[in-house]
Amino acid sequence: MININDLAFSYKKKNPLFSRLNLQLAEGRIHGLLGKNGAGKTTLLKLVSGLLFPDSGNITTLGFNPVHRKPDMLKDIYFLFEEFTLPDFSIQKFKEIYAVFYPNFSDTQFAEYLSEFEIHDNEKLNSLSYGQKKKVLIAFGLATNTKLLIMDEPTNGLDIPSKSQFRKIMAGAVDENKCVIISTHQVRDLDNLIDSITILDQQDVIISQSIEKITEKLCFKVLSQNDSENKILYSENGLRGHWAVVENDKNEESKLDIEMLFHATFADKKRMKELFNNINKA
Amino acid sequence: MSDIFNIKRFGLLFREQTSKNLKLFLMGAVLVFAVLMILDIIFIIAAGHYNVKFDIRLGFYSIFIFPAACLLSSSWFSYLSRRAPETGNLLLPVSAFERILTAFIINVIIFSIVYFLIVLSVEIILFQDFQILHYVTHFLEYYTFYSILFLFQSFFLIGSLIFKKAAIIKTGFSIFVMFIILQLINNLVISIVFRNIPNLNFGDVFFVHGNNIIAPPFFETISKWLIYLGLPLVWVASYFKLKEKQV
Questions:
Q1: Contact A71/B3, CB-based, under 8 Å?
Q2: Which residues make Cβ contacts (< 8 Å) with residue B32, sequence separation at least 6?
């Protein structure tokens, strides 16, 4: 679906954001794109969609070079931006004007998603709050049924019930032909939702793995205070002992904790790269 | 489906752009109408009668069209420079050519028609005069005026693609700088040709035939072709600038 080879990109010549970045993202999955502030998450999404052009290297999105922004590619991409401005339309008019650009747009799905978010389609977009506008765009983006759906911080501005609604809707919205990329700081919002994780840092991809592969290599568990058996990558003190990420030498089953994975990645980047370097394919 | 042009896609984009900007267009049209009415009324009051010369009115309409046109053109692509893109407008599945064609039709053709209709309505309301119709029905006779107007619009349109902030001021300044450079080159040429006449400027040189001041035929031809070629060149440049636009 998306192939990135030796990508280099910089906003300023002396300060490269990416150099020789390689990444593959497959269809049929929801990919979580994580990284610290300024790691280049939004930039990477813009490069993938053709809003920015690489300095060198290749990107293939849906079989196209995105820099050409060909309509045949764009009709299969929907990008939900973190910040946006919307025209002064009612939701119904917005759908009439924009849905026609997307051949697989489903009116029924759009109505269902809006109903799930408790928004009426006769409301004016500019009379809605930021969170409500975002919900309209999430519903619209999902209803376009594009092969690639990019969401940059989709849960920013959503209240707690809306985040649950978002997770519920997303869980049922992906099929084997679709690829969804969700970039976010709010890793808790992605719990039980994503199928693979990509973590960016300083010009490079540290991890890009499916959840299964991550839990194959790492174990998330509570350890006693004096544990010396496990190779601990990161730990936090908790009421019941150390909540830790350890190397999964004993093939134990555990549930991925995205936040702990994130901390572990930055606690020992070198080891994490070594663990996942040979299988970095999400 | 063609990557360059598809009539259905173009129609959808045209509808999107006009629907989105309709309120702005209507407000702009009302503003232009109000300004023309007020200034014509000032002319009438200053003259003390309704027989304000048509040539004066025409001159005023011809001058005022420039800032109105440039204001519209310079804001056309400004949405691509804002920090928050309008729902990823650049990612709408349309081609750069379709975007440029839409911009041309709205900024140049529709704008000119709307401006003419506003002027006509002002003329009818205040003077019951239809002379202005001549300048539309015989527009080919005034190709130089229209070409210069279109060229200005085109410059401001590409300016809205190039400059992220204050596009109208920066484009206006760029045109001014280009004009100054052209004057300096002209003065240099004049000083080389008439080197024994001190302090002679380009504007001081006239070509006289009998009692008439004329421009030599090849000068006229060059200036005509500069305008003819300039217009499509700026549009082609806008197309490529839009294709390369990153947000």
A1: yes
A2: B64, B68, B115, B118
Task: Give the C-alpha separation, B50 to A58, whole Å.
Answer: 70
Judge whether A202 and A216 are in contact, CB under 8 Å: no
Judged by CB atoms closer than 8 Å, whether chains meet at B87 and A102 is answered as no
Which CATH number describes the domain made up of A2-202?
3.40.50.300
Q: With pLDDT > 90 as the criterion, what percentage of chain B qualifies?
A: 45
Q: What percent of chain B has pLDDT over 70?
A: 89
Interface predicted TM-score (ipTM) of this complex, two decimals = 0.88
State residue A278's pLDDT score. Answer: 54
**Local structure of A69: helix, strand or coil:** coil
Strand partners, B63: none
pLDDT at A147: 97
> Rounded to whole angstroms, how far apart are CA atoms A258 and A32?
10
| Binary contact (B91, A70; C-beta < 8 A) | no
List the Cα angle A137/A261/A251 in 5-degree steps.
Answer: 125
A98-131 pLDDT tens trace = 999 999 999 999 999 999 999 998 999 999 999 9
Residue A242 backbone phi and psi in degrees, to 5: -90, 125
- Cα dihedral sign for B184, B190, B196, B200? negative
Listed in sequence order, the DSSP H helices in B128-205 are 134-137, 143-162, 167-193
* Average pLDDT of the segment spanning B29-36: 95
Question: Which chain A residues are Cβ-neighbours of B7 within 8 angstroms?
Answer: none
pLDDT at position B83, please? 60
Residue spans of alpha helices (H) in A71-159: 71-74, 91-98, 107-116, 130-143
Cα–Cα distance between A264 and A258 in angstroms, integer? 10
